[in-house]
Amino acid sequence: MKQPNSQPTSELMLRETASQTAGPYVHIGLALAAAGNPTRDEEIWNGMARPEAEGEHIEIVGTVIDGNGDLVRDAFLEAWQADSKGVYQREYDLEKPFNSFGRTATTFEHGSEWTLRTVKPGRVRVDGIDEAHGAIDDKENDLASARSALLMAPHINLTLFARGINIHLQTRLYFEDEAEANAECPVLSRIESPARRQTLIARREEVDGKVRYRFDIRLQGEGETVFFDF
């Protein structure tokens, strides 16, 4: 009998590696503060913007709610967003005023809320994310150029990991006070139901004179958050 490893690579079908639900080690390894452990000197965490970062400084808070309406207290989230000028910072450096990437988590304390401290992102072109790092649209193609002129509303991309979720979930956070930009956003407008679009809108609050946005993620059931298949 011919052994599987004797076949040429070109004849083999490479299958997707099996997914696995997130367990307690996610927090222990990547969310030390949420797990109640001492933090490292160099940590990728929820402070995405230093005080000197340009733009409007904001805080975002939220919860994760399961299909029974109960809080998910051990969820882990990753955030990816443009800076205040609509440019993604692709190189992470703790010394930079702003980094486009951050992490946060729900906890068993403080109302099981996750938090992000960042700046409000600017609008980003659909195809030409950042010309300084190489736009992906073809300038000689009229259709591609027309698409690249479209601006997405300010948003933050969120990836969610949690118990019972075998494949991480992708969603977006938009801002309540960006109604005009939201109405024009070519991604948000792809969601036909206005009620479903509202599940992606963070509500503006003011706490102690500071701007804060609340964004609760519902995994299932009534008011389920829209998730994207990227």
UniProtKB/TrEMBL annotation:
Signal peptide: none
Location of the Intradiol ring-cleavage dioxygenases domain: 51-221
SUPFAM superfamilies membership: Aromatic compound dioxygenase (SSF49482)
Keywords tagged on the record: Dioxygenase, Oxidoreductase
CDD domains xref list: 3_4-PCD_alpha (cd03463)
Family: Belongs to the intradiol ring-cleavage dioxygenase family.
UniProt-recorded name of the protein: Protocatechuate 3,4-dioxygenase subunit alpha
Species: Halomonas rhizosphaerae
